[in-house]
Write a structure and sequence with these properties.
heterodimer, A: mainly beta, 11 strands, B: mainly beta, 6-stranded mixed beta sheet, 5-stranded antiparallel beta sheet, 58% strand
């Protein structure tokens, strides 16, 4: 059983560069979420996919942030023209919308995250 | 006002103590409630869902008060291994989307 995997685990980049993170969800999960977490804070919701449809993207932090899930499987999160304030842990989570009542808790399964440092 | 509010702590308690955390939420249309646990430098993991009637899992008891819009987590007989950050999560539906919103977390330190 493979869980959620994220790549790269760490990324150091210079201000102004573009970065892309990849997330491979649990294979039978149709929902995929991106969060950002900074020190001392909880995960902050960024965007969400159900299958290949991006159902919520209004909370992406700026137009420099974009996400895709082209075939309803893996997803990418891109940050263009990075700024020092983008330094954070970027977490991906997947869940399933299937199941009935309490059989489906909507549990989020997180990857280990991609840590971004912008110099 | 934040959607989900928690006291960040830290709560510093001896082994064997009972400790309780509260969490308040602002969206009255919220439908599902959870507690997640996050160890230092690790990803969050589900601790337990919170049901309207309240629920218990071993030493952990979760309760929901919809009228006052708060959720609680009670940990009895604290263990050293309970030291972690406890994240309150509230999920609501918005235009067909289901968005889990996290609080900032409450830090628990259990000492010998």
């Amino acid at each position: 059983d493979t869980g959620v995997s994220q790549d790269p685990r760490h990324k150091i980049t210079k201000r102004g560069q573009n970065v892309t993170f990849r997330c491979d969800p649990i294979s039978e999960h149709n929902r995929l979420y991106w969060y950002r977490q900074t020190l001392g804070q909880g995960p902050e919701f960024l965007t969400y996919f159900q299958n290949e449809a991006q159902l919520e993207k209004s909370r992406l932090l700026s137009d420099r942030f974009s996400a895709e899930r082209p075939k309803g499987s893996f997803s990418t999160l891109e940050i263009q023209r990075t700024e020092q304030g983008d330094s954070a842990m970027y977490l991906c989570a997947s869940s399933s919308s299937f199941g009935i009542g309490q059989e489906n808790t909507g549990e989020l399964f997180f990857g280990e995250g991609s840590r971004l440092t912008v110099l | 006002r934040k959607e989900v509010e928690q006291d960040p702590g830290p709560f510093n308690v001896p082994e064997g103590a009972t400790v309780a955390f509260n969490c308040t939420y602002s969206n009255s249309a919220s439908q599902s409630f959870f507690w997640y646990r996050q160890d230092c430098r690790k990803e969050p993991k589900l601790l337990m869902s919170v049901y309207s009637s309240g629920n218990e899992d071993g030493r952990f008891t979760a309760q929901l008060n919809r009228a006052s819009q708060y959720i609680s987590l009670l940990i009895r007989d604290s263990k050293l291994s309970d030291s972690a950050t406890y994240l309150c999560v509230v999920r609501h539906a918005s235009g067909g989307s289901y968005i889990p919103t996290f609080g900032r977390g409450t830090s628990l330190i259990v000492h010998p």
